[in-house]
């Protein structure tokens, strides 16, 4: 670890976070052996060590002292004095499934959190048999659902696709395949003529002239 830290403050930084590990071990213990006064002294010394690095290392300024640090130094020792531990108050195991916690964090104004939880659960109990039942929906305008909605959602991409597959999917009121305009074979290029002939299974066209290709395709169509 020493090679990754600044030499002038490496020992202080390592000691700082080892001391934090000691504080955390006491706080997270179900039956801690340290008293409230001992925990308060440990937390206070850790805060002083943290602030002592201000100006020497980036990230240890007074502005970096988050609310969790005063809680560790003041509030948790008070809980230790009153309850001898704080582990019983943890909600880590039910953080996502605890309904009361979600009410406090999302639906309470924080002035009367306990009352908010009790009132919310009471309302749930009273209305548990009055859930809204989905009603049946009847389509009144069948013409719209059968034809007009398809026309409404028929854009250029759908029209091109309809032409490719030869089905009139964009105009359901018209049955049968799409009537495409006749193709002028004489105006087609040589690659286009060869492509059409290959699709029809014609071989031996690589050395044919354009007029010969036109005649061959005309005779087939």
What does this structure look like?
The chain is built from nine helices and no strands. It is an all-alpha fold and 221 residues long. Among the domains are: 9-89; 186-220. α1 packs antiparallel against α2 (36-52) and α8 (190-199) runs parallel beside α9. The longest helix is centred in the N-terminal third of the chain and has 18 residues, at 10-27. It starts with 9 loop residues before the first helix and ends with a helix.
Q: What is shown here, in short?
A:
InterPro entries: SAP_dom_sf (IPR036361). The chain is mainly α and 221 residues long.
Topology:
Blueprint: H1 10-27, H2 36-52, H3 68-83, H4 99-106, H5 113-126, H6 142-152, H7 156-165, H8 190-199, H9 210-220
Helix pairs in contact: 1-2, 2-3, 8-9
Keywords:
221 residues; mainly alpha; 9 helices; 52% helix; 0% strand; elongated; SAP_dom_sf
Query: What about the largest sheet?
Result: none
| Spatial shape | elongated
In helices, the fraction of residues equals 40-55%
Order of helices and strands: HHHHHHHHH
Portion in strands: under 5%
- Given as residue ranges, the uncertain stretches (5+ residues, pLDDT < 50) are 163-167, 172-176
> Helix count, per DSSP?
9
Q: How many distinct beta strands?
A: 0
Alpha-carbon distance between the termini? 83 Å
> Mean pLDDT across all residues, rounded?
78
Summing up helix and strand content along with how strands pair, one would put the structural category as: mainly alpha
Say what oligomer this is.
single chain
What is the radius of gyration? 40 Å
């Amino acid at each position: 670890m020493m090679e990754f830290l600044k030499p002038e403050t490496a020992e202080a930084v390592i000691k700082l976070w080892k001391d934090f590990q000691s504080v955390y071990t006491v706080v997270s213990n179900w039956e801690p052996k340290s008293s409230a006064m001992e925990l308060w002294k440990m937390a206070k010394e850790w805060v002083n060590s943290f602030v002592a690095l201000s100006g020497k290392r980036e990230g240890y300024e007074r502005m970096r002292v988050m609310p969790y640090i005063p809680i560790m130094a003041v509030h948790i020792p008070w809980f230790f004095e009153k309850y001898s531990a704080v582990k019983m108050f943890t909600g880590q195991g039910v953080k996502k499934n605890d309904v009361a916690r979600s009410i406090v964090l999302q639906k309470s104004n924080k002035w009367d959190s306990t009352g908010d939880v009790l009132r919310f659960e009471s309302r749930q109990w009273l209305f548990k048999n009055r859930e809204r039942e989905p009603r049946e929906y009847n389509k009144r305008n069948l013409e719209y659902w059968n034809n007009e909605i398809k026309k409404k959602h028929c854009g250029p991409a759908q029209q091109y696709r309809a032409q490719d597959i030869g089905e009139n999917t964009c105009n359901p009121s018209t049955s049968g395949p799409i009537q495409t305009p006749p193709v002028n074979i004489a105006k087609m290029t040589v690659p286009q003529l060869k492509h059409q002939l290959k699709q029809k299974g014609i071989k031996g066209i690589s050395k044919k002239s354009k007029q010969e290709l036109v005649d061959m395709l005309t005779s087939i169509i």
